[in-house]
Design goal:
The chain is an alpha+beta fold. 51% of the residues lie in helices and 14% in strands. Strand 9 and strand 10 form a beta hairpin. It is globular.
């Protein structure tokens, strides 16, 4: 190993419990995830056993109430756990973020009875969730969704197709936004749908350039019947629930992006200090030193930005603008850092023998999911200048 091998991120954590938690996550990541990450990603294999272990270890419900099996950790701690997991394998880090997103509606807007009945299994019972908002014809314009839920006695009958669903076809439950009333955002309601409901099916997973181990698929609802007790919140409140969930979910994506970027930087530093040309390590050449310095600065800036937004959330203050900023900056930074890492490794960076090319492919999707970065710019601008077309 080189004398200046990358060290684990020196984290500022609020409690001894949080420090112990990060140590646990690092142990699981290095022992259970890292050894098989490249091979399983190449094979397109989803590591369900890892998620079972994470659930048993209390890592699938970290920001939620301990009364229902959650970890009751502040978001600033939970997000750093995501970063650690994503740095080893994005399929795992993003999968935990999506599961947390899928649990949000019930944990935040569900009735006491719903929470008692469902949350323990969702947060620590080995279940895996998926979040169903996007559709084939409504991605960024989510308020125009067309999946319908129609009253039939004491039940709702859901019909439609959701698209780009992480964990589609393997999830145990789906948090589904469906139209129950008028066109537009006020006619949408939220439902908790079990994966074994009659009429629910998934298409074959999409063939993607990265994150091949994480299935992304359309999910079809062909007259899926659920009782009214599975409606979350009030009728017509679903879109507000969805947007609230996405504010928090965007911080999860930001943390995952910094994890991937940190992994790419570590790989680049290791390679640059070991690789010798013209009689010295290539890290001694100023051009590469400046690249490494810029990469590290972008990562530290992104980490500070997502943590600042998380601390606002933890304090109960508005954080939507900061969440959009964090998602925008961190994912753009991850794309730049991973691309530069490939460049530093030269020809080796373009081969699958080194992980840099995988990091670059994975970083791209983070600029798209949970609101494209163009949408994030629109969100930020609205906070600054008000709605368009006033």
């Amino acid at each position: 190993m080189p004398d200046r091998a990358p060290q684990p991120v020196d984290r500022q954590l609020p409690t001894d419990e949080a420090r112990d938690l990060i140590s646990l996550v690092r142990d699981i990541a290095q022992r259970e995830i890292a050894p098989k990450a490249a091979e399983e990603e190449d094979a397109g294999r989803f590591p369900r056993e890892v998620f079972t272990l994470l659930s048993e270890s209390g890592l699938l419900g970290l920001p939620y109430d301990s009364e229902y099996g959650g970890g009751e950790q502040p978001y600033e701690v939970y997000l750093q756990v995501l970063e650690e997991l994503a740095a080893v394998r994005l399929t795992v880090g993003l999968g935990v973020s999506v599961h947390t997103l899928a649990s949000y509606a019930l944990a935040t807007y569900g009735s006491k009875q719903q929470q008692v009945e469902h949350l323990p299994a969702m947060l620590g019972g080995g279940l895996l969730g998926a979040y169903c908002l996007s559709e084939p014809a409504s991605g960024s314009d989510a308020a125009s969704l067309r999946t319908k839920a129609v009253h039939d006695g004491d039940d709702w009958v859901i019909t439609g197709t959701k698209a780009w669903i992480t964990h589609g076809g393997i999830a145990d439950f789906y948090t589904v936004m469906a139209r129950t009333g008028e066109d537009g955002p006020r006619g949408i309601s939220a439902f908790l749908v079990p994966a074994d409901a009659a009429g629910l099916s998934a298409a074959a997973p999409e063939k993607k350039m990265g994150m091949k181990g994480s299935p992304t698929a359309q999910v079809h609802f062909d007259g899926v019947r659920v009782g009214d007790e599975r409606r979350i919140g009030e009728e017509g409140q679903g879109f507000a629930i969805a947007l609230s969930a996405l504010d928090s979910g965007r911080l999860g994506i930001a943390a995952c992006a910094i994890g991937v970027a940190q992994a790419a930087l570590d790989e680049a530093v290791t390679y640059a200090t070991e690789r010798r040309q013209f009689g010295k390590p290539i890290a001694d050449f100023q051009g590469l030193r400046f690249m490494l310095a810029d990469m590290a600065t972008q990562i530290e800036a992104g980490r500070a930005l997502y943590l600042a937004a998380a601390r606002l959330r933890d304090a109960g203050r508005p954080f939507a603008k900061q969440a959009a900023m964090a998602k925008l900056h961190c994912t753009d930074a991850a794309m730049k850092v991973t691309t530069d890492a490939v460049q530093i490794l030269g020809g080796y960076g373009y081969t699958a023998d080194f992980p840099a090319e995988r990091y670059m492919r994975e970083a791209k999707v983070l600029q798209i999911v949970e609101g494209t970065n163009q949408i994030q710019r629109m969100v930020i601008a609205r906070h600054l200048a008000g709605p368009e077309g006033r």
